[in-house]
């Protein structure tokens, strides 16, 4: 089985990923619902689609603050 790789989707079908405001946590929300309190949608064009992809890795060290600005997470944050 060389050349095969299975990418794990960030969320299941019918869901979209959301980011914890001020932290690196994430969750999946049904498409017909808004993000829960304390979470926000990822900025357009910067949404992780698979575990370990470019944006999944990026959001391990960055977050969105209360004003919607992308900021680096403090060391150990």
Summarize the structure.
This is Lipoprotein. It comes from Streptomyces parvulus. This protein is mainly β.
Task: Give a verbal description of the structure.
With 77 residues, the chain is mostly beta strands. It has a domain at 18-66. It is built from 1 helix and 5 strands. It has one helix spanning 54-58, and strands at 15-20, 26-30, 39-41, 62-64, 70-72. Strand 1 (15-20) and strand 2 form a beta hairpin. It is globular.
Give structural attributes.
about 80 residues, mainly beta, three-stranded antiparallel sheet, 1 helix, 5 strands, SCO0607-like, Lipoprotein
The residue fraction in helices comes out at under 10%
Give the C-alpha Rg.
Answer: 13 Å
What does the overall shape look like? globular
- Structural classification: mainly beta
| Average of the residue pLDDT scores | 91
Please give the count of helices.
1
Largest sheet: 3 strands, antiparallel
Counting DSSP E segments of at least 2 residues, the number of strands comes to: 5
Portion in strands:
25-35%
Largest beta sheet: what is the strand line-up? 2-1-3
Unreliable residue runs: none
SSE pattern, N- to C-terminal: EEEHEE
Report the span from N to C terminus: 39 Å
List the helices and strands and how they pair.
Blueprint: E1 15-20, E2 26-30, E3 39-41, H1 54-58, E4 62-64, E5 70-72
Antiparallel strand pairs: 1-2, 1-3, 4-5
């Amino acid at each position: 089985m060389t050349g095969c790789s299975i990418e794990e989707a960030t969320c299941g079908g019918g869901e979209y990923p959301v980011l914890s405001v001020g932290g690196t946590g994430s969750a999946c929300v049904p498409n017909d619902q808004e993000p829960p309190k304390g979470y926000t949608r990822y900025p357009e064009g910067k949404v992780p689609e698979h575990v370990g992809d470019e944006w999944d890795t990026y959001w391990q060290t960055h977050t969105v603050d209360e004003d919607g600005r992308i900021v680096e997470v403090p060391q150990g944050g």
